[in-house]
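Shift notes (night). Ran dITP/XTP pyrophosphatase while the centrifuge was going.
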Amino acid sequence: MTSSRKFTGPKLVVASHNPGKVREIRALLEEFGVTPVSAGDMGLPEPIEDGESFIANAKIKALAAARATNIISLSDDSGFAVDILDGAPGIYSARWAGPEKDFSLAMQTVEDKLKEKQASDPVQRSASFICALTLAWPDGHTESFEGRIDGTAVWPPRGCNGFGYDPVFVPTGFDQTFGEMDPSAKHAMSHRANAFRQLIDACFSTT
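Came back to this:
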């Protein structure tokens, strides 16, 4: 089995224009002495995400940032997937929020579609958060990892923490939504944390 390429820092471009994602990634990398700077802060354009999977889109973003800055870049492509909606919104999670990134609209759209399915029982409202992470080097090398967490889509939205669809997702085994949880509790067990553990084990030195 080929070993993963190791990150050499300390500077890292976070290939995202989403402040919530950048904030969570900074928190997860803090202990490794990494200095993350976001693509948005660097004025980089957002590439067209036309991949057919979370990992494909993560690669597009990470490679675009790495080649534009000549700095190792990390991207996150994540989304909310509802089983009874055939995994929608999935890779289109951000698009459901529209050009204004209005996630209250996106959450309402999910709920409207669940009502169309008459999905009122928690079993019918099973959902997941999925996160793909890609670390890309300017020479085109990439390392990708995917994490997920299962739970239930709830309504109405609860909590003001987190971002995106967090207020309508209760992870299995918990009674709070991601929007109600303390951020440190979410960081310890989220889909992003799951993918990050794989990334850290493969590409970051912990010695």
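Helices lie at 19-29, 54-69, 103-116, 183-189, 191-203. Residues 54-69 form the longest helix (16 residues).
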